Task: structure prediction
Amino acid sequence: KEHSTMPTLDWIGKSKVVNHHLDVPYCVLDRKYSFDENGQHEEDNGSENMIIHGDNLLALKSLLPQYEGLIKCIYIDPPYNTGEEGWVYNDNVNDPQIKKWLGETVGKQGEDLSRHDKWLCMMYPRLRLLQKLLAEDGVIFINIGEDEHSNLKLICDEIFSARNYITDFSRQMKSGGAKGHYYTPSLDYILAYAKNINVLPYFRAVMTQKQIKTFYKFTQQEGSRKGELYGEERLFKSSLEARANQRYYIQCPDGTFAIPPGNSLPNKLEEGLIVTPLKTDKVWKWIYPRYKKELEAGNIVFKKTSTSGLVDQNGNKSTWNIYNKLWLSEQQQKGVVPSNLITEYENRQSAAELKNLQLNFNYAKPVRLIEYMLRISQQDSNSIILDSFAGSGTTAHAVLNMNKIDGGNRKFILVEMGNYADTITAERVKRVINGYGTEKNATEGTGGNFSYYELGESIFDGEALNASIGLDDIRKYVYFTETQQKLEPLHTEEPCYMGTHMDVAYYFNYEKGNTTTLNRDFLHTIQTKADEYVIYADLCTLSQRELEKWHISFKKIPRDIKKM
Result:
């Protein structure tokens, strides 16, 4: 009986790029500067946030030794390949670097490629490397337009496996307008794939803008809404003052406080959250049944306050509201998952954001959209988020916003090949960290830091090691090719020791400009006990019998250094 197989996509040049990621040279990353609360400086601040300028194919390969299998979320917004000209991010795949790469990789076949063939040749090896970088419980989101949507779905099924397909989010990218011959293009798409869908956490619903407005209507007194409202933590940021001078607040058994609506019975609320008086008791009626037993048991203590604003137990004004948190908490517990129709994050939002940031960049994605995707996929406070088509740096903006809100330590890695990587991508991140905008549009800085890198030279010069590459970068590369693990910190008492994995100790005996030898003198320097040893050197004077006696595998530099 024949087994059915998934359909695969073929195109001119595919045979040349299917395994091209294996031939991509490993290049080092050359840090140019760091940025933090002290501004820009040459000293390395040790930041785990990275902005890399260079071809993202080479950059992704260079990230493997440190990040393979560690990236919890990848969000990319590659060229839609519409064929239009004149974009800051060239969207017709005619970027000179891409054309040069196609000429070298695909060869003369490249002369006959359509723009769709070129796009597929460009994307395929990059997606192969992204799949390697993704954590076992990680997720990748790929924003794409209709021109390459069907092609992207087929190559993602091939690379990530069709069983790891999650969904295809449809996003309303604009409303109104009448461009187009037969219809007005209003949608784009976000393909979502897991590395391993069996261990991927379920996506969870978060409040949309429409729901925010609904809750706002129930919980606000009269007065204008000021400030941005996005994300459940930013709800009801202003105008949360109770209009009555005489209100009660409640101390619950767990020590939390709340103000009940009007003269209604109080309720036990989540820790640290305050509720404002309501115009109506509609929401109160919704909450009360959930806490009826505790109310009837008399487990609530009333205390009187004359403050006109919302207070916490220390008498400080609160900018939080309970209803959205209760709603979100219950949805999470019920297992409510988000819709794959996204209608509230249109591109016009990003235009306003960039105007306030005073940056010139077309067709960036709204920061709220990326925050939304990170939230529904439940990226925890220590996740590493990668964007290898960084554009204006929106992904870093979203990560910094989220860290500011919940005190998290999410890290971002951005890769941008355009010559604006420093002047727009990194510049945006600097302004987000420091604060931007003026007067009513002023936005407080998020704080944070990053380091800016240029893509450096290849670790190999032909078959030999590149003499201009630093020893630490070479050691990092060699240890990763052996173990798929991150290099251990340098042991000053054993400078040639790289680390131990699966009870095998690894040594790299290398000096630029000098010949190194694995001999008995070198063996006397070894202090680490292990079942077996792998030792790199230029020469070896030990006999085969001696190597076997001490369980040593000798590897010759550079001949036996693997090429990723």
The chain has 17 helices and 24 strands. Residues 2 and 108 are 38 Å apart (CA to CA). The mean pLDDT is 78. The radius of gyration is 28 Å.
